[in-house]
Amino acid sequence: MTQHDTVYVNGKELRCGYTTGTCAAAATANAARSLLGGQAPEAHCVIRTPAGKVLTLPVETVSVRKDAVCCRVQKDAGDDSDITNGLYVHAEVRLQPKEIVIDGGEGVGRVTRPGLDQPMGEAAINSVPRRMIREALREAAEEYSYAGGFSVCISVPGGAEAAEKTFNPRLGIVGGISILGTSGIVEPMSEQALVDTIEVEIRQRAAEGIRHLMITPGNYGEEFIREQMGLELDGCVKCSNFVGEAVDLAVANGMEAILLIGHIGKLVKLGSGILNTHSRNADGRMETLAACFIQSKAGLDRRAVIAEKILECNTTEEAVDYLREQSVLDTTMEVLTRRIENTLQHRCYGKLRCGAVIFSKQSGLCVCTKEAEAMFADGTFCRGRLGSA
Description:
389 residues, alpha/beta, five-stranded mixed beta sheet
């Protein structure tokens, strides 16, 4: 890249990078031109990304033969903490009589479950990178007045090892990484990338016929589901901080019921209508608990003292312990439950059943909404394979 674009994240200027899809397209372009022109591949490739950015990427030659040329581009994620940063994306191009065939080789995953961007059995090279590769080949063909086809094999040495640190095994992509990118550009700490991953998981569950979905922010929730509730984790989707987006995606993908389960440290924020639970967007944990306590009308003679003490707590675990000591925990949680019910129902617009279970690591169950209780009672969620309709 001749010059990295930059973005500001939390007051810091960070460099953007480029996707594995962009790397694959650039390597393909130079290999195809070399093969058609009968010359050594060039050291750089100028390529336009789907976002309209024009990049000049360094391209290395791996091998040049009469029937095939292989070039590679090193992935540069800029200042993003991308697990694929520094890996080389190879493109080996061959000529064939007609059509363009794109497949994956070493280090590129293979799709084994439905609901992903590519059909089962195909290489995990997503639609936009495939389109970029095809465009690069068509441009090379036009440049050299070539009317035949191409066979392209994309490989990423080291991709299998890198994939173990990604969501790929969970999604049913085996043997390597995915060749990704919708804009062609990697933005540091991209929230959209996380939301896209949540969308893929929910879409995949829908393709498997699942209509009742469990959602949890992270590892604490999964641990509670497995160890305290005795439920299977099959079909469970992690939403990180993006609770609102997860609800929206569940609606969009035809889910009939969702059960949100998580630690009170994150999900208490729903009691104030906060559906992106990252601390940089909003905190409000203690303010929510204090408001719920006051609204409960418990401890009337000590209301100011208790509310002030809640606001002084550093963690929700500390606040919950204090509320129990003051014998006002149950009434406070009743108000929090109602508030969370209202928040979730407003977000899903009544288009699906939406319940929540919220816990404290030290105190156990804190919140179980009426809809969650109903879903347990009627067997929507039960022991065994979770999420089965």
